Amino acid sequence: MRALLAAAALLATGCAKAEDAGLTRMGREVVTEMNRLGIVIDMSHAGERSTLEAIDASARPVTVSHANPKAWHDCPRNLSDAVLKMLAGRGGMLGFSLYPHHLQGGSGCTLQDFCEMVARTVDVMGIDNIGIGSDLCQDQPHRIVERT
Questions:
Q1: 87-136 tens-digit pLDDT
Q2: Which of 93, 14, 76 lies closest to 51 in space, CA to CA?
Q3: Within the chain, where are the H helices?
Q4: How far apart, in whole angstroms, are the C-alpha atoms of residue 52 and residue 83?
Q5: How far is residue 94's CA from residue 125's CA, in Å, rounded to a whole number?
Q6: Distances 62 to 13, 27, 35, 40 between C-alpha atoms, Å
Q7: Which of 57, 61, 77 is nearest to 69 (CA)?
Q8: What does the pLDDT look like over 49-91, one tens digit per residue?
Q9: Rounded to whole angstroms, what are the CA distances from 46 to 30, 43, 103, 119, 136?
Q10: What would the DSSP string read from start to end of 90-109?
Q11: CA 52/CA 36 separation, integer angstroms
Q12: pTM of the full predicted structure?
C-alpha cells in the first residue's frame, strides 16, 4: 500500500495533503499514456487542483468512481461544484460513495438525504454523468474506515 501511495505522489497530489500542487510532469505523461492505452483515469483520491488538471489534460473522459459533492458534506474526498461541472462537461462521471465519512450524518445518513443529494447532483452534472461507486468498507476496523 505504501509503495502504491508513493507512486501516486509522483503523478498528482492526494486529497489529504494541505497543499495541492496539481499534476506533475510525469503525471501529465501518464495521463497521455493511459489515454493511448484506453485505461480509465480515476481521480477518487486526488486533490481538487490535481483532479481539475487531470480532466483538462485528458483527451478521454475521467472518472471519480467513489466520492460525493462537497456542498452536501464537506470532507477531503468529496468534490466541489467546479470539479463536478468540469467532470460532466468533459463527459466524465461520478460514482456516489457509501463510505460513512463521505456521507452527511455518517452511518446515520438516511436514504432520503442520500437521494436528495443525488437529485441535486443531477442538477449540477446531468443524469448521464452519475452512478454508484460504493467504496464498501464493511467489517473493516474503524482505524481504516476513518481515513480519507
A1: 999 999 999 998 888 899 988 999 999 999 999 999 999 999 999 987 66
A2: 14
A3: 2-9, 25-37, 48-57, 81-89, 111-125, 142-145
A4: 6
A5: 9
A6: 16, 14, 10, 7
A7: 77
A8: 999 999 999 999 999 999 999 999 998 889 999 999 999 999 9
A9: 15, 5, 18, 24, 19
A10: TT-EEEEP--GGGSTTGGG-
A11: 20
A12: 0.85
C-alpha distances in angstroms, 88 versus 49, 53, 83?
16, 14, 8
Give me 88's grid cell: 460532466
Residue with cell 450524518: 105
* pLDDT level of residue 6 (50, 70, 90 thresholds): low
- 26: CB partners within 8 A, 6+ apart: 10, 11
Q: What pLDDT, on the 0 to 100 scale, is given for residue 41?
A: 95
Which residues lie across from 14 on neighbouring strands? 46
Coil, strand or helix: which one is 46? Answer: strand
Alpha carbon distance 133, 44 (integer Å) = 10
Rg over alpha carbons for the chain, rounded to the nearest Å, is 15
